[in-house]
Every structure is written in C-alpha cells, then in structure tokens.
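I wish you would study the pair of lines that follows with an eye to the fold:

===
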Amino acid sequence: MARKIKKDVTLGVQLKFICGECRIPQKHVVLTSYEDCIAEEGFDSQTSYQIVQCLNCEALCFRSEYEDSESHSYDMSTGEDYYWSTEHIFPHRTAGRFKIKDSFTLPPGVGKAYDELVSAMNAGQTILAGLGIRVVLESVCVDLKAEGDNLFKKINGLLKLNAITESDVSILHKLRALGNTAAHEAKPSSPEQLDLAMNVIEHLLLGTYIHPRLASSVFRS
C-alpha cells in the first residue's frame, strides 16, 4: 500500500449543503483541505478533509468526502459511467434538525442531554434518539425535583409542580413509552415518531426554561 497526503487539492471549490447557522441550503467554499490518497493493487481511494465556510453567514464547519476506484457504475440507459462519493459534515445536519434558540441557557444536565439528542437525530441514530428522548425527560424531572421513584411518577410529579398541563401528561407518557421501547427492545422509532417527540420535548424546554428566562429579562418591572 502506498499513501500520499496532498494539501489544498480542493481549495476554493464551492459546494452547496445545509448551513448550520442559516438552516437552509447555502453555498460554501473550501478554505483548506488535506487529501489522504491510498493506492493499492487494483484499488485506489481518496478522502478529502476540508474546512469549509458558508458564503452567506461565514460560519465554519468540517466536511469529509470519500471516493474510490469502485465508486462508479455504468448506466445502460444512457451508455455513460456515473460516479458518486460519500459525504460527512460536522456538526451533523443530515436530518435538518437544529437546536432551539437560546438552548445554551438550559441547565447543564438538561442542556447536555438535549445536545446529544439533537446529534443522534441528525446522525440518523434512531434507537439512540429514542433513548435520548427519555433521558431528556429524566433530566428535566431531576432538575425540577419532581417526586417519584420512576419516570412514570416523576412525570405526574411535574403536573403537581404546575410545570406541565394535564394534556402534556398524556403526551409525555407516550414519549416515556417510546424511550422504554428503545431501551428494552433496541427498537428504532419511526422518523414521524421522533420528529413529533422532538417537537414536544422542545416545547417543554421552551415553556419550562427558555421563555420564562426571556420574559424576566424583557419584561422587567
């Protein structure tokens, strides 16, 4: 095997993908790159590691692109070869799920659980995301000191603390069941289930932490 590292082969190349700040597809430009080129008998590959910048908001992110000598096929209908590559972008945004505004103000334990849940969602890790839903619920209950020796009782304890409404209770119990299934059966949740669960979780975080904090700073008496 022969390996060769090249620098800035893709410098200046423009790409279009979802920007983590703009939250919509935007043009990005490669600021610098290192290409890891490997040559073996009958097989060649190249991985490009890039620092890229959004041309709209100037936010930075990391991108890698992998291709090899087998990343092509023949299209019999057109009579032409077509090629493909494998792309990874960090922070993940493959599912297009972005953190709620001001999530950095969440309590440390809640914020850490929420951050990892968003990462699992965007990485397409449906089992871990289902578990993450439960962990975020648990962390909120612990932070608010909801009474109970299990999550079922703690969710009901949130109602006694007036942190949630009666209608919220039934929804949160469904989320608890979703987390139980992921934990005990290693069963992935559907994209529709996870998307709805995330909406509910984020509504809980906004109503419990972020909106009250903003209200206290905006409407000062």
The longest strand covers residues 25-40. The chain has two domains: 2-90, 103-218. The domain at 103-218 is CATH 1.20.120 (Four Helix Bundle (Hemerythrin (Met), subunit A)).
